[in-house]
Structures are given as C-alpha cells and as structure tokens.
Amino acid sequence: MGLARTLAVRAATLVVLLFIVLFVISFALAGPASKILKDEIMMEAKSIVMNLMLHGHYNSTQVQQIENQIITELENAYGLNKPPVIRTLYIMYNMVMFNWGYSYFPSEYGNIGGGKVVDIVLSALPGTILLDTFGILLSAFIGIEIGLRSALKYGSRSDKAVMYYAALANGIPQWWLGIVMLLIFSFYLAQIHSPIYFPTGGIISPRYYETWLLDPVKVFMIPQAVLDLLWHFALPLITVLLINVGGWAYFARTVVLNISQEDFVNFAKIKGLPESQIVNRYILRPAAPSILTSIFITIPFIIFGGFLVTEMVFHWWGLGYVYNIAIVGSPVPDLPVVVALTYASTLLYIVIIFIMEIVYIMLDPRLRE
Amino acid sequence: MSMAKNRREFRILGMTPSEISGEFFSSSTGKVAAVLFIILIAVSIYALIVLPPNFANVWNNPKYWQLNPQYAPPAWIDSIIGPVFSPQVYVNNYAYGIQQSNGITYVTVSFTANYEYNKPWSEIFIVVNNPAIYSMEQPPVVSITVYRPDGSEMTLGPVPISNRVIVLGVSPEVVSQVNLFYAEKYHITSVVPAGSSAIPYIFYTYDDGKPAPLKGTYKFYLVFYVFSQNSSVINNNDLRIVLQGQAYGLMGTDNMGHDLWLGLLAGFPIDLAVGLLSALIIVIIAIIIGIIAGFYGGLVDESLMRLTDFVILLPAFPLLIVFSVLFQWSIWDAVIFLAIVSWGASARIIRAMIMQIRSAQYIESAVIAGASRMWILRNHIMPQIIPYVLYLLVTNVPGAILTLASINFLGLAGSEYPTWGMLLYYADEFGALTSGYWWWVIPPGLLVAFVAVVFILTAMASEPVVNPRLRYG
Fold first, then answer.
1. In total, how many domains does chain A have?
2. Touching check for B35 and chain A: CB below 8 Å?
3. Residue B331: which residues within 8 A CB-CB, separation 6 or more?
4. How far apart are CA A141 and CA B84, in angstroms?
5. Would you call A13 and B319 a contact, using CB atoms and an 8 Å cutoff?
6. Domain range spanning residue A34?
7. What is the pLDDT of residues A57-85, one digit of tens each?
8. What is the pTM for the complete model shown?
9. Residues B110 and B91: beta-carbon distance below 8 Å
C-alpha cells in the first residue's frame, strides 16, 4: 500500500510538473511572443498587397481594405483575436493531443513531411538516439569501469590522473571541444591533403540525406551508407566520449569510495572474503541504484543540455539541432516547433524519471517505506 | 583535556581551522587548486586595472579598431614558424623636416622599414590628429616615394589629406601608380586585384610570372604640401604612420580588428561575476529553503520538498534559451533566471544535513534544557553547515559559467563587455571553422575551461574536508 501511494504521489508530481512547464511555455508564447507572430502576419499581408498593386488595378483605399482583411483573417486563423488566456489553453490542448501543427519555416528543415512539426521531430529522433543516448550509455559504461578501478586504487597515481582528467572533462564545454575537433580533424587534415579527414558536419552525405530523414532503417540496409554514417559519426562520438567519460568516472569513483567505507564492507574484508566477491557483492550491488539513477536522469537532461549546442556545432540532425534552428536559426523563432520540442522533451523526461522511480524502488527495498 | 580549553577551541565539523586547511592542502589537488585560484584572482584584478573604465564603449566602437588588421593571428607566431607574417608597425622614429617657399609649406617625413616576411604589410595609414588640417578649404596633399631594395623606386600620390585617417592603398591614384610600375618594369598589367589594397604590391617583385616577396630595406620618403604659410602646419605630434601587419599582438584579432587579448582579459571579471553571483543566489535560496524544511518538518517540509523536486526537474537550459529569445534577455537576466531554477539539489543537501544534526543527542538535550530554535540554529547548526555552504558555493560556480558560455555561444544573453562565449559565437559566425582561425577559437574555450576547472578542483580538494568518509583512504 505504501509503495502504491509513493508511486502515485510521484506520478502526480510529475504530471503537475509537465503541465506547469507546458503552461509556462504556452503562456510565454501566447502573450509576449505573439508580437513576433503579429509582425510576421503584417509582413505577409504587405507582400500579398504589394503583389496585387503590381499586377492588379486597385486604388489605394481598396488596397488598404484588402490588407486589413488579410490581416484580420490571418489573425483569426492563428487565434490572435482571442485573449491570451484562451490562446494559452488552446496551445496546451493541442500539445497534449499531439496536434502539433505546421512549422512557420518548413524550408529550414528541408520541407520534411510538408513542414508538419510531428514529422520534423520524428526525423530528428534517430540522430539524437544515436549521438546522445548511445553516446551517454557508452561513456557511462566506460566511465564507470574506469571510476571503479580508480576507487579500488584510491590515492594511487592512476587514481589521481583520473581525478584530473575528470576535473578537466567537467570544465571543458563539450561544444567547444567539438569545434576544436572539427578544426583539427576536418579543417587542418583537409588543408594538408591528408588521405584521412573527417566531414565538417552533417549526419550523412547529401545523397543519403533524404533517405535518412524519411526512413533511417533503409540507410542501415546499404553498407556504403552505413560506412558514410560512421564516418560522419566519428568526430561527434569521440567528442561526446572524451567529455562524458570523465564525469562518469568521477561519479562512480565517489559512489564506490563512499560505500567501501561502510561497516559491512570492512566486515567482509575482515572476514577474509575474496576481493572479487567484496567488489561484486558488497560494493557494486549497493552502488547500483545511484549509478542507474544517474544514467537515467542524465539522458533527458543531456538532450537539451550540452548536446543541444554540440549537435549544432556538428550540424548533427537531432532534436537539439532542430531546436536550435527553431530558436536562433530561423528568421524569427519558429514557435510551433519550439513548443512541440519543449513539450516532447519534458514528456520524455518525465516518463523516464517515472520509470526510474520504479526501477529504483525495485533495486532498493528500503525506499518502499 | 579540560573543559575550559575545549570551550575556547573553535571547531567546524569537529576540526579546527588549521586542521581544515591542513586537510585541504594535504592533497596535491588542493595545492594545484590553490595555485590556480591565485592565478585566476590575480589575472582578474589585473584585467580590471588594465582595461579602461569605458571598455564596453571602446570595444563596441568600430573606429577605435580601424587601424588593426582583421583576422590576424598573434604576432608571436613568427617566432615559431619563422618570419612569415609582417607584424603591425607604428612608425615612431621617422625624420621630420619642414620648409616654406612660395606660400607653400613642405613637410618631409622619411623612415625605413625592414621587410623580411612572406606576407607583406597589407595597408599603410597616415593619421593626422588635428581637425584643423583636414578640414582646411584646400586640404594638404601627400606624395610618397618608395625606394625598394632592388634599386627601383615607386612614386605614389599626391593623395589629399581630407580625413583624419588616410587609407593609402585604396586610393585610385595609388592603385593605378602601382599597376603602372608593374606594367613598365615587368610588363604585367592590372596586378592589383579590383577592390583590394595596392600596398602589398609595393613589397613584391615578379618571379616566373608570379608575385614573390622582395625582401630587404625599404625607404619611404613622404612630402606633405600644405597650401598656406601661417596656419595649420602638419605637426610632428599630430602625425602617425601605421603599417598594418598580417599578425597582431599577443592574441591576434577578429573580424572587426578587435585586439583579442583585451577581449579575453575582459572575460575574466565578467565570467567570475557571472559564476559567483549565480552561485551566491543559488546557495542563499538553498539555505533558506533547506533550513526551513529541515527545521520545521511536517507539512512545511513536505511542501517545500515538492517544490524542490519540481525545481530539480525543470528543463532549465531550453527554458533559458526560449526566454532569452522571447524577452531579449541580457546576461544578468540569464544569470538570475539560472540561479532561480538551479537551487534544488543544494537545498536537498542542506535539508538532509540539518535533519541529521537535529536528531543528534546534544540538540535534544539543548531542547530539553529550554534552548530556543534560533539559539540552536546559531550555536549548533550554523557552524556545522558553513563549510558545506562554502563547498556548495564552489560547486555551483562552474555549472553557471558553462551554461552562460553556451548560451552566449548561441548569440543570446549578450552583454556590452565581450564574454568568452560571445567571442566564440562571432568566431563561428565569421568562418573560424572554414578558415582555420585557431587563435580566435582555442583561447576563449580554454579560458572558460580554466575558470571552471579551478572551481572544480577546489571543490574536489575540499571534498575530504566536508565528507569525512573520504578522509581515510
């Protein structure tokens, strides 16, 4: 009963959080940001009227009338004639129903799905899973292994080296390392005509681009395309690994160090149990929940944390890059895409956190009370 | 141990201050962190002293940087790869003479320049710092004779002095005279590409149909003709001659000719301010929430912890981007927003500590003895959480610095002062990656990393102090 109640409270908190984030974003867009939309409508109306004046036979009052009519109609279509509260609720409703609408600037995203926001987001998902999710899992795997070894040799020279590497990796902006990698392995290698060099960005060569955006599974059927994808993947993945392995190593080291000071570990040592058994049974098992939590909680955080800018640097077609186009890459912020991505990421985040809560409770029965 | 001695002793977490500093400096991490911290503070103070108080205006005034080369690598690059890039030269020791005849004043200026580089000076500026001269009814003119190392000579001008800064190489007379020189001497027409400066071609010769550097000593002889006898003579003090190099200063220049060394220096105080201010707000909110939750317990605790969970889960970075775009936020708005959404984790730590301390036996005894909450807070709890608070302060700085650098790199939340993130934004905008401007990319990122690493190392070194478990390996 206690468990069910705990989970119910968590679920409620998370749903409330989702709605608050959604409300804040929708409200910001319906209120202050609607000016952007209004300007856009004015511009559109002006250009239509300009065309009419060039080709039609209207006098100035007629033109003014037509312009006003266009503006009113467009404002109605976008719901701008409604008060901000209604518009906020309207945006929220559409988001929750996955009725995400159309991008204002479909050409910025290569006209995927005719500019349908859902299709744009879906086309970017494989890239994000490849670079972010796979990148995090791989670096967590490597980092935890390093951190574990480091903690077991506490105070040794290799342990100190791991500490300094972790400090450096935590301090270097991932996207900056990405720029430096591109500068060295893409620009300079190409400049000295090296036989091996890496592309300056993109997720895949242009000839496979369309296939990738529409049906990534098909790309994996063509061996050359897979090689091409890997060639594009090399620099971003190395960047992600270099930065994230350090953080994981330090984290795992701290967790293991904390646990290895516990009485039950000392007792196991005094009992003379073999080292491997102590590590596996008395250190790793209690360390598992906090390490797992961290892996889980990092995935959604990172998609819109450091990876947003990293994807932009590498022009890597993932959610972060799309988000970046929607916000700073298009002439004015592409509001439908911005809202949809913020909502989608928060939703993803909340689902993952809820799964994590369940796993966590399963791993650590003490938390059930 | 007598009671009296015990009472006088000041202890935090059961350690005296000297024990704490001993623990901090016992590890090599602590020593390295301390050295780096001192360097960081020293450079920041140096930056505040060296930069003029109106540096933001200076930085944003394109005219101020007009004489500097654009996209120039640092000058010290020549000492590594040999004399390749001509450095920026401000001609100081020129010979100055003045004569008058027939109602005209002749001012003669001569100097030599030793040319030994592969990439010549790209422009010559003649600066006359006296508005009376270039606003005369009939402005003076200057004509220049260049004696080249191969014995040939080039005559340039006359060019009117009708501005404070004369850009010699782009004036049509000079371009056509340099073209003429090449046509007569090497039979090559139109050597100066349309729209570019003729100055580099002063330092070239023709070899196998290609322009090649002609190294040696060049002698410049300038004559200013001032068409009046009494007033407005071009004075020695008003006159400056600058050879624009292809390498510049300690850290090179950007697309505007900004001296990047100054831009990088300006980043120190602003980055420290950004990091410390946001960490300070985070910790203050965390202390208040943590103490109230931990001390009162019950419903207050429950609701404050729900709030804390909420704040921890907020996707701060995308929200920061969205709001920075929508509301045109400055860097300080971004700092405050970031602080307001980042205190969750710290508040949880402080609450957990207070809960632990509160359940200790001596607190219960104090409560039984009739001590008030404030008394317990002041005498038992505060001394114990202060080191943690400092630790949290230190750990919260790098996150803020890195986040603000990222958002500046996106071209958002800018400031009048150049920040390292903004330098990187412009580097990316103006083709650092496609043209290989490493001096514009490497230093700002390294400095962001340096400041973050200093705080991370400090936090790491103080971990054994605040977490006794890590003390005995």
1. 2
2. no
3. B270, B274, B404, B408, B413, B414, B415, B419
4. 48
5. no
6. 3-97
7. 777 788 788 888 888 887 777 777 778 78
8. 0.87
9. no
